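Example with several molecule types.
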Amino acid sequence: DAMVIQNPRYQVTQFGKPVTLSCSQTLNHNVMYWYQQKSSQAPKLLFHYYDKDFNNEADTPDNFQSRRPNTSFCFLDIRSPGLGDAAMYLCATHPGGSTDTQYFGPGTRLTVL
Amino acid sequence: AQSVTQPDIHITVSEGASLELRCNYSYGATPYLFWYVQSPGQGLQLLLKYFSGDTLVQGIKGFEAEFKRSQSSFNLRKPSVHWSDAAEYFCAVSSGTYKYIFGTGTRLKVLA
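Resulting structure tokens for the full complex:
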């Protein structure tokens, strides 16, 4: 089945130790997103790619970076995780057309010790 | 600027009872509207969407939603709730681009 896959599902890191979260898709969608979701809150968009074009949200901290080496893969790098970065990180994709919809992966739960 | 309001943070209903989750949006033109459901520890799953046409939209799992332009609302309904419907529900709006604005969510609890 075509889908959005996130690895790992659970990630534990130490304060200040860089961590990378992975997302892959078999949908061949143009757009890929990274959202941060804290407990009982709405998903907060960090950034998105339309093909290779990177779009950073104005309030996304510099500590968060992303890479999209090809259509299928997108990575979220947190350079120096703080305790406040503990959250669920959701990857989503979108074909790019106006009447299409976003498809979400299962998320990666990040714990910062 | 677009915004979405879900006035109810928590809702509790008994199994078999009807359900209505409220969503109000702010947008100058006709918005694209969505309802997503999120089970604990999972990603978001699309329940239904409205782009244009018939204002009553049918979705998966027996859910429906009605777009009311005069009230700037897109409320989600289900005639008879099942215990498996317990989850968090998010309303979202788009201006027709691929960027969505999500509401803060409504957590549904179902009593046996």
